Amino acid sequence: MVQAGLAIVDLERWPLHTLDAPAGKAMVARLREAIAQRGYATLEGFVPQATVARLAAEVEGFADCAWPGIDRATPYYGRTDPSLPDPPPGHPRLRTSPRRMAQIAYDQVPAGNGIRALYESSAMPAFLAAVLDTPPLHPMACRYQAVNISVMGAGGCQNWHFDGSEFSTTLMLQKPESGGDFECVPRLRGPGDENYEGVGRVMDGDRSGVVTIPVSAGTLMIFRGERSLHRVSEVAGARRRLLTIFHYDTRPGLTGSLAINQALYGPRVERQDEGRAATVF
Ligand SMILES: [Fe+2]
Q: Which residue from 147, 226, 238, 239 has the highest number of Cβ atoms inside 10 Å of its Cβ?
């Protein structure tokens, strides 16, 4: 039986409901291969066009509640390098680039919304754990971070950064008229090698290693962003860029810290049972 949470997914094309059947196994194998080769997989038409257009219109109805947060950030946000406690001026650890985006928090997405239902389904984390070959994944217990929708109007962008988590899962809801491209320098750093020189070059404008990953409305992307420097280029035009970010983790019951949640979602944020310093995308 198809789970209600999967109602927005094109299950003929992406059979998340039958992972143990031949078609499901073949899909998982293909996606694993793509991630091993390139560090990401894009699932075009994960949500059919008519459905994603309806979801985007729904989100536009409450998107003005999104909180803008900080307007510049380093590639590492607050994360530090224990081997470099006091970086010199101009070091990539200290250099910032513009971040002009707002985020809708999980508790601002209405109950019954199809995006929320997908996140809360058991099929979605099971599917991601199969593709990423991880132990079982769990939704976050954080009322703010679990699902976010990023909102970028004209001039919007996201700073160059590495993710704080091993992988991220995003669903494009609405593309802007132009710009808003997902740009990435694959595997710029590796275990034990921060490659600060390479990071500095990219921040200086070196485009030689930059890859633009095409992502259309309705596309799900599974991305390993811990080692690949990435950003969103500047948005142009009246139509806003809307992107959903799903947060799962192998550790059940996680919540973000009060300080990070307030930085991301504004002063309305209340204390929860604190789990760990939060993932920041
Ligand atoms: Fe990211």
A: 147
